[in-house]
Amino acid sequence: MKASNLIRVVAAALVLSTLSFAAGVAGDLSLADGPRSGTRVVLRIPPELPADTPRAAPLPLVSAPAAEARLAIQPVRVQRIERIEPIEPVELIAPPEKPAPEPVLAAPPKADPALASKHEDVHAA
């Protein structure tokens, strides 16, 4: 794509985007007075609550001496064990033995790797 064509495409996209934005703003501004007929609804955030709506009471203040009177750590309970039952031994299962790896046979090295070609068998003699 040529640079001049790229510039034309970008310019056309920019012009169309600007026109679309301007049309949207003009449409929103034309409705600023609101509808001339029907019921008008006003949304308040937060909404007004009726006078008899139950509300949460504020939390009571805790003074420092009352907070210090409570233990942070609960005392440990000690229970006496009358009889200890023996634990049965568990039979361990040995993992299966793996077969020995097969030896890898490597090709014998070439006499002079720099001088030998790829398809030439150096050890044929």
Q: Determine the number of helices (DSSP H or I, runs of at least 4 residues).
A: 2
- Roughly how much helix do the residues carry, as a percent range? 25-40%
Shape: flat
Ends distance: 62 Å
Strand content: under 5%
Oligomeric state, counting identical vs distinct chains:
single chain
The topology string of helices and strands comes to HH
Structural Rg: 45 Å
Mean pLDDT across residues = 78
Q: How many strands?
A: 0
Unreliably modeled segments: none
SS-derived structural category: mainly alpha
Most strands sheet: none
Can you describe what's shown?
With 125 residues, this protein is mostly helical. It has a domain at 1-28. Helix content is 27%, strand content 0%. It has two helices and no strands. It is flat and about 95 Å long. The two termini are 62 Å apart. 0% of the residues are buried. The mean pLDDT is 78.
